[in-house]
Amino acid sequence: MxxxxxxxxxxxxxxLDRVAVEEPLQITIDGHPVAVLMRTxxxxxxxxxxxxxxxxxxxxxxxxxxxxxxxxxALVFLTDEVEWDVTRLSRNLxxxxxxxxxxxxxxxxxxxxxxxxxxxxxxxxxxxxAAPDLLREKQxxxxxxxxxxxxxxxxxxxxLLASYEDVGRHNAVDKVIGGGxxxxxxxxxxxxxxSGRVSLEVMQKAxxxxxxxxxxxxxxxxxxxxFAQQSNQTLVAFLRPPTFTVFSGSTRLDWG
Length: 256
Description:
CATH architecture of the largest domain: 3-Layer(aba) Sandwich
Shape: globular
Number of domains: 2
Strand order of the largest sheet: 9-8-10-11-12-13
Strand content: 25-35%
Distance between the termini: 41 Å
Largest sheet: 6 strands, mixed
Structural class: alpha/beta
CATH class of the largest domain: Alpha Beta
CATH superfamily of the largest domain: Cytidine Deaminase, domain 2
CATH topology of the largest domain: Cytidine Deaminase, domain 2
Helix content: 25-40%
Radius of gyration: 18 Å
Order of helices and strands: EEEEHEEHEHHEEHEHEHEEE
């Protein structure tokens, strides 16, 4: 989503330009306010579903009894079988578009309990190299504003299964994961591609969804690399065909 604004250029000319929209979304679960996300409006059902998954509140879409998102509020009602502790989130109820974990209260809450993904599946090198162009074609709002991150979910065969844009890269990741859950896709057979750099939080979210490989157009952070190595995730960065760099999990790539 974008909107028109009046600007002044370096030459003093007045003109209209397009900017990405950023608005708050309050998430309330079973009557408890748990977070305010600064996000690009639209696809809120996917965003909230992905947020619930990557925060460890749900395991599947079936655990959401009702989700209603309207006017910057998302009301979530979980099934009776879901047990969750509102205090475990340890958020200050605010997540900026630039950082999804900045509301965490402790270092332990940031690092979380680290699991390990199973070995496999294999991904062909040619599939990886073709992915950036496929995602770029879907970055409609970025084309008009230059102000959004994008994330895509790809199958082992290279099909772009879902793609979303957002002012926050972590929101774009949550939207993709949530969209995959809503479509009941097997995320353990897919890989993520993010349009910018890859941070610790991106790797954490991928791991929470069981996604074994994350690729990025730009650079990884040191914690992203360390986390990927410890969790048996494949991390590919600087994916700019015909080149890329593997920082973790090279055994998942078919180099043939």
